[in-house]
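Inputs:
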Amino acid sequence: DTAVSQTPKYLVTQMGNDKSIKCEQNLGHDTMYWYKQDSKKFLKIMFSYNNKELIINETVPNRFSPKSPDKAHLNLHINSLELGDSAVYFCASSQGSGTNQPQHFGDGTRLSIL
Amino acid sequence: DAKTTQPPSMDCAEGRAANLPCNHSTISGNEYVYWYRQIHSQGPQYIIHGLKNNETNEMASLIITEDRKSSTLILPHATLRDTAVYYCIVRVASNAGNMLTFGGGTRLMVKP
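Outputs:
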């Protein structure tokens, strides 16, 4: 019974294409996140949404656009993919946006740009 | 948020306790200490967190020094499945979001 699920698990595509990654959580949480893990394995926050409202937007190119149709879903759409976008993207969720709330992560989407 | 320093790697024998240290000498009074781990090809997994007092749950124990400048995560009986990268993170309480900043972590290798 997966708590935070991401699809697809693997995504291989050409430079310049547009692609989306979907994330769903069944934990009843109201805050969701997107992180990027690059080839050096450092995890960095990209976005945070609380009750479908954006609350964190780190320095991310505007080619990346998160969309939250409801508080159980936070999808990531990427336009005009570039080679540097190759990474593993993790979705996470927590109950509330306060610090004292642990985050639950999905297993990641491995994006490879050819 | 306070910076953390962890050893890049550690080994532990299966069945023994694994003690993972973390230095956070610039920690502020309202910053929590969090531990997550990442097993190969999986997402990070929350382990435990604390503010001042030592904490214990079904996964691990967290020992925070009295001056709060360092902490130790203890896995009491390490198994092969505990092989992972362990991240120590300090984070201030804020309503502006719950952004986690991951450093390099400690790669724990549990050996038979």
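Remarks. Chain A touches chain B at residues 4, 31, 33, 35, 41-45, 48, 50, 55-56, 58, 90, 92, 94, 96-108 (CB under 8 Å). The longest strand of chain A covers residues 43-50.
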